[in-house]
Specification:
By secondary structure, this protein is mostly beta strands. The chain is built from 1 helix and 16 strands. Strands 5, 6, 7, 8, 9, 10, 11, 12, 13, 14, 15 and 16 form a 12-stranded mixed sheet that branches. A hairpin with a 4-residue loop joins strand 10 and strand 11. It is globular. It starts with 21 loop residues before the first strand and ends in a 26-residue tail after the last strand.
Length: 236
């Protein structure tokens, strides 16, 4: 059956136009149509709208940070309904970054003092902070309010994968991927997300990266940094 650019067929029935490029997936008798969009991969929902499944965001260096020849990006992917995959990617002079050595996964405080990737989740009562180190250590905290009432959160050790640890060159690539079980957080009423990074140089300087920066010194806890939304889950 031929379909014109208007989304109508010769039978008089109307269909939603499918942009190009797109991909099809058949699972349990259900056909899903995925669109490659500017902010990630979208899925055609049963009501005819495009539902974001992957969200990509550039991280911005704080204006007071040293000028490192780097670009930092992030990608959030919802795997199923309750597993969030967060990937941080650095492109540029990766050899200028001081990266902690990879060790056995485990919990450790004060990871933010060195190269570290972070995720903040606003909830009904405060927010959660997660730290992911290139060493594969992690930390998690709950705050009742802005920098108030901090309590450590003890969760099963999240899976953290790193690639390109010691790549040299001006166009090198380094990535850290963390997997979070959202079932442990969803009961708190998840809201906006802040994705950030502290990058320590081999010269001892640090640069601070976030989705957005409020006026003043770097402050990842400021709600103005929480500008992302979680990808939408699959429709039942």
């Amino acid at each position: 059956m031929a379909m014109g650019a208007s989304g109508h067929t010769g039978s008089g029935r109307s269909f939603l136009p499918i942009p190009h490029p797109f991909a099809l997936s058949l699972s349990n008798g259900c056909l899903s149509i995925y669109l490659k969009a500017g902010q990630g991969l979208d899925k055609l929902s049963p009501n005819g709208g495009w539902v974001p499944r992957v969200k990509k965001h550039a991280l911005i260096a704080h204006p007071d940070s040293p000028a490192h020849a780097l670009r930092v990006g992030s990608k959030m992917t919802l795997v199923g309904a309750d597993v969030l995959k967060i990937q941080y990617v650095i492109v540029g002079s990766v050899g200028s970054i001081l990266l902690p050595s990879v060790t056995s996964p485990g919990r450790q405080d004060e990871l933010w003092r060195h190269t570290c990737f972070e995720a903040f989740f606003a909830i009904d009562a405060g927010y959660f902070e997660f730290n992911f180190s290139p060493s594969r250590h992690y930390a998690a905290y709950h705050f009742e309010g802005y920098r108030e009432g901090m309590q450590p959160v003890f969760l099963p050790v999240p899976s953290i994968d790193v690639e390109g640890d010691y790549v040299q060159g001006d166009d090198a690539r380094y990535s850290l991927t963390a997997w979070l079980d959202l079932k442990l957080l969803a009961a708190s009423g998840l809201g906006n997300v802040g994705l950030t990074a502290v990058i320590e140089g081999t010269d001892g300087t640090k640069s601070y990266w976030a989705l957005a920066h409020p006026p003043g010194p770097p402050d990842f806890h400021n709600p103005d940094c929480f500008t992302a939304r979680l990808p939408a889950p699959d429709a039942p």
